[in-house]
Amino acid sequence: MKILPSLFSPAGKNARLSIVIHHRVIPEPDLLLGDGGITAFETRLNYLAGNFNILPLSEAASRLQNGTLPSRAACITFDDGYADNAEIALPLLQKYGVPATFFVASGFLDGGRMWNDTVIESIRLATGDKLDLRSIDLGIHAIATLEQKREALTFLIDRLKYLPYETRALQVEKLSTIISARLPDNLMMTSAQVRQLHDAGMEIGAHTVTHPILAKIDAAAALAEITEGKAKLEAIIGTQVRLFAYPNGKPGKDYLSIHTKMVQDAGFEAAVSTAWGAARQNSDIFQLPRFTPWDKGELRYVLRMVHNMRQKIQVA
To answer: Does 1 score more than 70 pLDDT?
Structure first.
């Protein structure tokens, strides 16, 4: 199956760089989130390793610019900094002999929890047939079935995601108090696990401190998030952090051109978005697109990757 991606991603100046995004790799399938767990992850890792040439992102970004990428070039990335990246993903990456870049939101290390995980785990553990959130202007939701919980979760994430940071934090705290479930405090990496990934030859990238939507906060706060996240990770691993991922990552919506300039000025060498597409030699090195193919069969997976290579790349 390597012939087809080679046609659309040849070596050299006409190469395409496909960057794949992951977040969590959990032991068992998660029915609430529709996550296939470790089995699904390893299956897709096998497809990718078998059909593409996987490079470290820093090397790939450099070779993209100077026109020396191999054919079918690809990178693997993980966002946010979940503990299972070190516990489950790392051994599988080592099994297949492939590198990856882990973009870590430094403020959640060592016992923190992202706001969306507070919502997810609260809904997962909520009891009864209905969840009444009218007191915090988030409606009333049926939660008797798994499908109803999924619908409630989608509504809440969509409603909360683009609220101002402090408003969202307060709403999430109130929601958690109403549901009053005992939430996990070990979802995110420890500093030791960040060092473990680095020591294993994996790349550590910055993902801000608290994962805000940069376009929704003022310039000074955005700059602090970008630079302080970088500094904290550098202190942990003892070397320069050269790669950055924009939180949420939609160009023109989640981050703006002012933020790409901040990232460049902060000393990063490349940055990634969540816009679909595969990067070309003339792509903005501070807005490299990323994508996650979801197909179960190998042929369909490869075809999805090829289709993504033909996408027009969106930038801020």
So the answer is: no
